[in-house]
Amino acid sequence: MDLKDLYHEIIVDHNRRPRNFRRIENATSVSEGYNPLCGDKLKLYVVVENDIITDVAFEGSGCAISMASASLLTERLKGKPASEAEHLFGQMHDLLTGQGNEVDTEKLGKLAALEGVKAYPSRVKCATLCWHTLHAAMKGEEVVSTE
Amino acid sequence: MSTAVDKLDKTPLDVATLREDFPILHQDVNGKPLCYLDNAATSQKPRQVIEAVDRYYRQDNANIHRGVHTLAERATAAYESARERMAAFVNATASEEIVFLRGTTEAINLVAQSWARPRLEPGDEILITELEHHSNIVPWQLVCEQTGATLRAVEVTESGELDLDSFEAAIARRPRLFAVGHVSNALGTINPVKHLIERAHIHGVPVLVDGAQAAPHMAIDVQALGCDFYAFSGHKMFAPTGIGALWARRELLEEMPPWQGGGEMIKMVRIDRSLWNDIPHKFEAGTPNIAGAIGLAAAADYIESVGIGAIAEREEHLLNYATRVLNDLPGITIVGTAEKKAAVISFVVDNVHPHDLGTILDDEGVAIRAGHHCAMPLMEKLGLVATARASLAFYNTTAEIDTLAVALRKAQDILG
User: Do A7 and B414 touch (CB under 8 A)?
Assistant: First the structure.
């Protein structure tokens, strides 16, 4: 385990300057994620038009891992087909928990920077919170809690 | 800084020798010497406690209060002498006033369910404070839901002290009980419990003191305090987990009905009715944590051998030193600046979330707590989601506090 694998420069950058950190007034789905264990909270706004995610943004507070994960999520999904959300949810779950199928990290691009989390079991939920929130938003659920 | 060190060196405790009593402290974590600063979560155990538990299982283990054989008699004697030891530890007048339980949480639940529940009616109030640990909040919420009573809380000031005006206003409403922590686990605030108890009694309000954080740091004297219930946990005071005690005045225990039924808590059982055992046994249904009670008594002996006064003095020096070191670091704010504090320092670091701090410090071998410290209402009041918390015991050293400071700088370098 090396801290540099956890606090990869991409993660540090996205924590310092989260992308798409804002509210969307006319979002087609909004979902709130909450981790009662550490108090991390985030609200994810998604705009889907003709099966395309035309805008996605978030607000909230949390540790560097949860903030960076959410920021990377929004950056990755903007402009992508709605089906990509569910696909990435599965991929990220497998990557972060080290369970399930082998993940092709090259295809994940910057998101692969989160892989170091799997060596820190107590921090996995920090990284997965936004992905569970996305999963809930795409299903039309308003609140999700990871505990 | 040098003044604090000089003064520390003059404290009577031979810390290097005392640290030898704690086997767990002598190990590396992530390649660095362990620097255990999470004592408010749980304290480490000296070999005197570990050996007492070990000896009990190797030599005396038997069920208590029933066997006529030698081991049963030895185990019973050891368990009941542990009760006497703990009665002396809190300066109770009689050992029957000590009920062995799993810990502070179970003790408070017992008072809520056995003492408060039969008395509470809709319109009644239970008074707590905003400083409380969840274990001194939720049991009262449960009993309020069951009875229609209302739970109110004394407000806390920005420095993390109880607002005495808020207390006076609330106590004048004559709640059925006032339940207050002796020492705040989240901020370290030492509450003026003796004063609060006196004021509460003037209004005829009985007082429960949650002593979980006080027991390892200061002499407990229930007679001098004048409280009605005092709850504490073994594991915070160098004893095993899963054992603690409730002290209550005899007449209160006598009028309380049993909370859990089972063996040991009865004198006679028929299918249609039973006759309860005397106090304290009527609250100790089932085979108790015998080894835990023996370990708890050994911990009380250990504290006495070190000297509670010397422990308190040592911890105050460590607290002053750590407070100065953290105040000298840029970008760090101490949360909780009460005038009277135990050796607990909650703090936040600019641009570094407490959970990241916890992980980065762990990489340096430094164990701290990050989070809401089971005091979510307090965190909300202070406008915080979480803090980092370093909590010190007498066996900690100024060198460990320096290690903490270096690790904090590293965290700031990585994320700040």
Answer: yes
